[in-house]
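Batch 3, record 17
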Amino acid sequence: MRRVLLLGIIVFLLLAGCAPRPGGRIVYGLTLAPSGIDPHVNASSELGIPLTSVYDTLVYQDPETGEFVPGLAERWEVSDDGTVYTFYLKKGVKFHDGTPFNAEAVRFNLDRITSPDLASQKARFMLGPYERTEVVDEYTVRIVLSEPFAPLLDSLSQVYLAMASPTAVEKWGDEYQLHQVGTGPFVFVEYVPGDHLLLRRNPDYSWGPPVYQHKTAQLDEVEFRFFTDPATRSPALETGEADVMGEIPPQDVARLEASPDFRVEAVALPGASLMMFMNTGRAPLDDIRVRQALLYGTDRAAIVSTIFKDTSPVAYGPLTAVTFGYDPTVQQYYPHDPERAAALLDEAGWVDTDGDGIRDRDGEPLVLDMVLMSWGYMPEIGQLLAAQWADLGVGVESRVVSYPEALEIAGNGGHHLIPFTLSGSDPDILRKFFHSQAFFNWSKVEDAELDGWLEEGARVSDKDQRVELYSQVQHRVMEEALVVPIRDYVNLNGVSERVQGLRFDGRGWFPWLIDVTLAER
Amino acid sequence: MGVGYVGRRLLSAVFVLWLAASLAFFALKLTPGDPAEALLAASGATPEEVAERRAQLGLDDPLWLQYVRYLTDLARGDLGQSWLHGRPVGRMVLEQLGPTVELAVAATGVGMALGIGLGTLAAVRRRTWVDTAATAVAVVGLSTPTYWSGLLAILFFSLHLRWFPATGEGGLRHLVLPAAVLGFALAGSIARLVRARVAEVLGSPFVLAARARGLPGRHVLFVHVLKAAAGPALAVTALQFGFLLGGAVVTETVFARRGLGRLAVEAILWRDLPVVRGVVLVGALAYVGVNLLADLLHAWLDPRLREGAS
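Prediction for the assembled complex:
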């Protein structure tokens, strides 16, 4: 009998011990150096990790279905011509400082974002052809565009266009980012730039979107700290200095997973895959056969397994596989086939006549100028590509430069090859890379048909039509061999086993902290 | 120490500051890359919108006008506004100054204690294994990059022994590892100089005389020899202060501490010119200030310098 009782007590303790309980605090590791964190002003993805829980947005996107669901707006209508969006707002919503949320607050926020004085680095441009906001009545507001803009709801569902307290914004002026006030499940307590950012539970929260599982936050506090040096991230997790850590280096994943105390949550990000742009405007890459040869000569699986330890999928096209509009049939293009690559180069007249291992034509060696940036494993990828292409008889000269310098070089077409990646939840992101007027048109493509599809894709709201348009874009990009896709971006989060219920929004970057609980073990 | 001496030193300090400010201004203008484009390219802004921003930042104005505007703002104590953060540079730099000074001072303490200790030990036990060992430690300190010794220190003292936290700030315990790592690097150059100086003083007539008078060895060493060696140690520390600020950049990154270093790195990467200039200026101000102080201290320690100057 005593034994049974004892067993009962043990089982009870175990169950009670493992069950998630409300309250507690966690430390969340961010990877960015001190940087501006006003979502209306600044552009980093990192700022959204804490601030998504401080603010609410008009709409939310369900990551499962991709559908938009009510946020601060309980419903909305779009005019037939796609230029007027009418939002009917929830009533009884209050900012953390007591200011009531209403149509006037929405107009104040959008006016702030679009004001030239604010010098917004991202939010302003997410609004596309925005014209103005009209207050219809206290809880009805209208956003007017000069032309249709399909990604608008997607933009409005992101923290960059979140609703801030007009009272607080006016009170703090250019120091507002240290005193942010939203309507979200957590209250912004303090931010010491570069050291930490502290959030505390908002006990009054009850107006969350249907994608949140709890009515109010379960944790009392979340403290964010910054770990810019990748090598220190896993150790900080292992010493218990952080409970969640973003952007774990791929080589640490196996070690963390082997431990019973940690897990790695890999979140695939929608957006553009990491791709090597081939400058079609500069010989010899103006010859499609040379570009195709580079694609056939690339063993992407080897790169993904060597550098990313198979933690991210191989990319076959310009969009990552989890992006709306991704066309899986791009996987047919350019399997690893060194013989075919060699044949294409022969056909283009590039043959190694002097036996130095590098092909040449008319006395010119086939050597390509590769421009790399130091982040995102680009130098490592460049090195592996150079090694693989050396087997084809193609030489690579690479240099590592800063981002602004890369923009300048590639803008002027001073490169043969340059890699880049961007995350974003709408396929309109392709317009940033393959439209003839785009900043990142680093393939130097000028294709009127491609421009037309991309412009049309940004305008039409019909989903099937958009899928069709972006499918055409993806096929054209690969047929014309504009890029060498390498991998889909995957955000590797190291998580302590005491942290339960960590979920991310549709962008894969921003956690929904309201649902996080602590398992006491 | 006459007023003339101090006045001349102050005047040259102002000159050095102006030089640093101007160098920072023009060197940054020479670096490739357009700040407006760096800020906006990924946002989906059109080329026209980027051009607008460029004009807004004053980047379209002639260089001389930008320079004059920069100097007049500076003269009024206005460091401008960060292009990346949208906040006043002066306030941003002040926020990050504290932690860097804290680290620099602690590292200087560690470096001087370790450097003078090792150097004296090596000089007193010259040409024995103690000398060799102390010199070896000094050379290792001098030649090991702090990002490497920092990681090793984290691995051993935080992860393995769990004595100190690996990263972050918050009191003395957080300061120990970064200060030790940075101080260790500083100790190398101090130790080598102190060793040479102590060895020289040990053989000098006044030490021989003190010994001949029967003063105990320890007294001679601490009162006569070390006082003579302190001056050069001070001078080298002051000169190394620039290195210390630079080393702090790396150390701050490894130990996830905030500070001027990390602020500067981010600003350089993004061509946030007002912030880079602000950090350079504050760094120059600190460097000039520390060297001024060291000169005055040195002059006080060594009467020959005072007499030569006045």
